[in-house]
Amino acid sequence: MAARGFISRDQAQRARQRPIETVTQRKDKTIEASVVVDTVLDELKMRRADLTEEDLLQGRVQVYSTVDARVQQMADQALEHGLLLYEKRHPSARGLIQGSVVVLRNRDASILAETGGRQSYKERSRVNGDLNRVTKSLRQPGSAMKPIVYLAAFRKGAFNLDTVVPDEPISVSDGGGLNAKWISNYAGQFKGMMLRGPR
Description:
Blueprint: H1 9-17, H2 34-47, H3 53-57, H4 69-89, E1 101-104, E2 111-115, E3 120-121, E4 124-125, H5 146-156, E5 164-167, E6 170-173, E7 180-183, E8 192-195
Antiparallel strand pairs: 1-2, 3-4, 5-8, 6-7
């Protein structure tokens, strides 16, 4: 620039003495959501068998998800934190315990976050295609069924927030009258009559 007359020789000399400052480009923080991608790919295959993962990667098809990156990050952190606390209480479970989280939007049941396991398990990152516990784990629904059962009872009018119910084992017929299925609490302990509404 000095040779072409754009700056003086003094300016060129001062410029040579200054250290070169580098500017690092700020990368936007990305949220790892491999389980979400896994679910999207599964749904894509079910809905459009003619489309492949390659179509998605090459941009021939675009998929829009309801997943919220902020909620996804919170779900990931909550699962990790909860499992670490569990392992502190149960040291024999360290490195063995797993879990999953699904967060739905109340008004329309859109999936806001989906976490199918720990960020790393047995020294492997979950991006390596471990089992997606959200969609592929076969398990009993457990207490997740309680709100559905209570809602049905509330709607029928036989149940309200002040209703006292017995906490005891119950017998359910198989329909043929031959065998009965006994349903009880996991710990096998019962507390008698209980108020099920908020206290």
